[in-house]
Structures are given as structure tokens and as C-alpha cells.
Specification:
By secondary structure, this protein is mainly α. The protein is built from seven helices and two strands, in the order ααβαααααβ. The protein has a two-stranded antiparallel sheet. The longest helix is centred in the first third of the chain and has 24 residues. The N terminus is likely disordered. Bound molecules: heme C.
Length: 182
């Protein structure tokens, strides 16, 4: 016990001295500025698995098919089959445990809400965050309809999207239950 106390006090004094020396000799660089609330709001758009924070709006499969054709198919193929410029998004359901697993949104992703998050945030890759929320809901509906994960007449919105059961939803091991909300 005595040894422990001595060691602890010594370490505290040492780090105090080091911090003082650093401040005296190397001033921190005067780079950047605090982000404005508007800038933080634009970046703070994560949608968790349970869909909390999904925005108002909605979109149908038919609307999504048109948007996909216009803004996504050049890279992801006419029906999401992929091209050398963009990942395959559909197909491969049921192949993950086979000798030739095909990992796609349909076959691999556990939560449909992630699809909204990702597309809104990052796609089209050449013009991210350019889609309206209605357009994001529509392309999500369209992509999920290709492998019949949702019916062709579905309308996606903040209520229906979190209820979608992805085929590989139970294919993941929950290694740390405290970090993952049900
Ligand atoms: C100019 C080419 C291009 C366009 C247009 C484009 N994408 Fe992508 N997309 C990519 C590339 C490249 C990736 C892979 C990005 C990465 O892995 O970082 C990708 C990844 C994705 C993914 C994730 C796939 C996965 O399994 O990880 C989704 C979903 C997606 N795009 C949807 C869309 C949608 C919807 C649109 C239209 C609104 C779109 N993309 C338009 C090139 C494009």
C-alpha cells in the first residue's frame, strides 16, 4: 500500500511538470475555428438502427425506380447489379454461408435504416447530400423492393422503414450487448 501511494504521487507530479514545459515551449497551432451550430447540424445526421431521428417525408418504389435510373444507375447498374464504377447493391440473399458469398445491401446489411443514413449522407458519390428526404425514402424503397424485402407497393417513411426485416438481420453476433440497442 505504501509503495502504491508513493508511485501514484510521483506520477502525478511528473505529468504536471511535463504539461507545464509543453505549454511554455510549444504554443498550440492557431488553426480552424469552432464549428457553427448550422455546420454541426448538417454533419449530425446519423440514423441509428432503430430509426430514431428519421426525418418527415416518404417515397414509393415507383418514384424510387425513376430516381435510381436518373441518379444512381450509371454506377450501380440499371437494376442495382453494379458496374465497375459502383458496388452491386442487390442479389446474393442466402449466399453468405456458401463457398461464394455475395455481399450486398440485400444479402448482408442488418438494418434498412442504415440504407437511409448512408444514401442521404454519401450518395450520389459525386454529389453527396443533394437528395431530398422524399427522394432518399423512394430509392430506399426501390432498392429493397428488388429482392422483395419489401412489397412493390410499399411507401417508405419514418414509421415503415424501421419495421423492415433485413434477410441477414440475425446473422451478426452481438459481442457487446451494452453498446447495441435492441
Ligand atoms: C459516380 C458513381 C456513383 C453514383 C452516381 C452513385 N453511387 Fe453509390 N456508390 C458508388 C461507389 C464507388 C460506392 C462505394 C463507396 C465506398 O465503398 O466507399 C457506392 C456505394 C453505395 C452504397 C453502399 C453499397 C455497399 O454495399 O457498401 C449504396 C447503398 C449506394 N452507393 C447507393 C447509391 C444510390 C441510391 C445512388 C443514387 C442516388 C448512388 N449510389 C449513386 C458510386 C456511385
Amino acid at each position: 500500500m505504501f509503495m502504491f501511494r508513493t508511485g501514484f504521487a510521483g506520477a502525478a507530479v511528473l505529468s504536471f511538470v511535463c504539461a507545464g514545459a509543453f505549454a511554455a515551449e510549444i504554443a498550440p497551432p492557431k488553426l480552424g475555428r469552432p464549428a457553427t451550430p448550422d455546420e454541426v447540424a448538417k454533419a449530425d445526421i446519423s440514423i441509428p438502427p432503430d430509426g430514431k431521428g428519421l426525418p418527415p417525408g416518404s417515397g414509393s418504389v415507383a418514384q424510387g425506380a425513376q430516381i435510381f435510373q436518373a441518379k444512381c444507375s450509371a454506377c450501380h447498374g440499371a437494376n442495382g447489379q453494379g458496374t465497375p464504377n459502383g458496388d452491386r447493391l442487390v442479389g446474393g440473399v442466402g449466399t453468405l454461408a456458401s463457398a461464394n458469398p455475395v455481399k450486398t445491401v440485400s444479402s448482408y446489411w442488418p438494418y434498412a435504416t442504415t440504407l437511409f443514413d448512408y444514401i442521404r449522407r454519401a450518395m450520389p458519390i459525386t454529389n453527396p447530400q443533394s437528395l431530398q428526404n422524399d427522394e432518399v425514402y423512394a430509392v430506399v424503397a426501390y432498392i429493397l423492393s428488388i429482392d422483395n424485402i419489401v412489397p412493390k407497393d410499399v411507401v417508405m417513411d419514418a414509421q415503415s422503414l424501421p419495421k423492415v426485416q433485413m434477410p441477414n438481420r440475425n446473422g451478426f453476433i452481438n459481442w457487446e450487448p451494452r453498446l447495441i440497442r435492441p
